[in-house]
Amino acid sequence: MDRAKRVLRSEGRAARISDVATAAGVSTATVSRALAFPDRVSEATRLRVLEAVRELNYTPNEAARALRVGATRMILVISPYLYSGAFFNGVINGLDAELASAGYTMIVGSVDGPIEKARRLVDLVYSRQLDGVVVLTGVDPVVEGRSLLDAEIPIVSICSPMSKPSVPAVLIDDEECARKQFRHLFALGHRRFVYLSGADQHYSEIVRYRGVRKEARASGLGEADVIRLAGLYTLESGAEAGRRYLQLADRPTGIVCASDEMAIGFIKTVSEAGLRVPRDLSVVGFDGIPFTRYYEPSLTTIVQPQAALGARGAEALLTLIRDPLALPTPRIGLRGELRIGGSTGPAPPAAVHRQRQALLSS
Amino acid sequence: MDRAKRVLRSEGRAARISDVATAAGVSTATVSRALAFPDRVSEATRLRVLEAVRELNYTPNEAARALRVGATRMILVISPYLYSGAFFNGVINGLDAELASAGYTMIVGSVDGPIEKARRLVDLVYSRQLDGVVVLTGVDPVVEGRSLLDAEIPIVSICSPMSKPSVPAVLIDDEECARKQFRHLFALGHRRFVYLSGADQHYSEIVRYRGVRKEARASGLGEADVIRLAGLYTLESGAEAGRRYLQLADRPTGIVCASDEMAIGFIKTVSEAGLRVPRDLSVVGFDGIPFTRYYEPSLTTIVQPQAALGARGAEALLTLIRDPLALPTPRIGLRGELRIGGSTGPAPPAAVHRQRQALLSS
DNA sequence: TTGTAAGCGTTATCAA
DNA sequence: TTGATAACGCTTACAA
Fold first, then answer.
1. At the topology level of CATH, where does B2-67 sit?
2. How far is A299 from A263, CA to CA, in rounded Å?
């Protein structure tokens, strides 16, 4: 056994299964079995094999195994932007925990930026290098006519359904959450609103905006009482929306945001202009990222179950991988909850509001 | 060619190189060449091959290629915590941009949590599934006596050197940055300090703390003028340090933090207790994460070149992969810069400070 | 310029 | 319980 070790070292190559087999005095088949199915091998053999494995510092070559078995134990997660956004970090952490405990490794890719990046991801999928795909927020990169959805690979979606209804999706009750945002402000006396939107066309954007409008109508408000400002979920787009808000002739006092980051960017801008939150206006965020607890004021927001979104998505995917034919639950519903912080308060009396507005404009 | 396509579809399997070869009427070797070295085949052949590739929707099987070539075009990035911390997100984005443009795919793993996760990463490295490794903040998982450093794989480190000096490292001037943090406060008149630390034993922690103490000594202060509060870089550990700060009998007015998140957590806690920043105390962060611009007050901080740290690390690694024997630059130095925000200001006059302190304690 | 064929390191079938 | 052996799909000498 020692001689085998010296040979390897002198040749400067890693041990392979045949080295272990030689060292243990068995065949490669037996080594493979001893590792994969310890109980299908005699006690004595198993011990000798394991000893040789340890001695030679043997780790099976994954490429060879993947080629042979046709599975890689790798999962691709497609995120809208790479590592931006504390919210997706939370979801991805949930995914990773679940996937890792099942023995899977996760690759996170984004399709923002140059088309090259998207092409690589699509190639990765089509080259059978992946056992499954998780899609966040419904992104479906189509490169040269190839879509992930045609790749015959297990796939689940989180935060948005896919265009192909058979793809399982883990969703929260976006519409109801948006209504909760609105109701909270309405109950505080706010009667005119800004809806600070997410990216156009996004599933959650469409559903949440609908929720806000429905709730506004149900509360007896008209179309003009909810002003939609376009945002992109980011800090900067929230700050930019704040600037547009400041230019409004008669400013609403209830601000419903599609993300926490936008809420924070928005508050920053209007604070610098001299407005005070929640004295002059109230802001509700969406997501429940860790920063919301530490912002000044702390943010009233919808807390999404980030880890659970990831974990349930991982579960659904693993189910699909283990039995690709079993019909999976097409929709998994989770719920967001309103957490009240310091960024919302009673609407200022109309007279006071008008007066302050006049003061600030001057 | 159409027949080949129908056969594949009926068999429900992906096209392989031999299918393309048959369809194009050439050998598999020619297909391989047409794809990898287009100029080593004739124009006509190339066109026929590419047409067959398109027709059959062929993507080379990466596992087979990896097995044959002994390279996977995958890079492992080991991060201290998975997807926490806006700072590492910035570094990882820099890495990804550079690696992706060189045709590499990135896997991000963390070694926090159960030992199982670390074992998987180490196995991944030893199973030759990776072409290189990037280590953030010097983490070196050792599982069952195997260290990454013994794996004979190209490896570079970012934000910290490794114990093995031959490993290239991309570093910033931590000591000088810490001195800048201190000098800024000292110039504003602060004479007693809190140093809110990072994780014990961390390279950057050791170096930065040394910088602060050196600068304090150079400024004529004594040991007792810098109080070290232990932190862990996180929002929560900053908030916790704030609580300990509030219990100090005589509270320093200059707060030097080892991360932005701690600075924010700290400010939140002391603000809630009635202190005002920067009127009563000044706080300097470290990292320059996006939130620092949107916090209220905006944070004075050391801006680390996050994307550049990642990009230079990726470059160094790619160099090492392409020529493992070339002696790489062992140290790559980048610089952080002080960005002044609203969280620092003139130290309050001693009398005022004492008076306010007495008021608050009551 | 093209084709033949060996071999990368596994696992799984089949026979002993 | 074990061993011999045939794939898995690709790349690359080497030969033609």
1. 434 Repressor (Amino-terminal Domain) (1.10.260)
2. 8
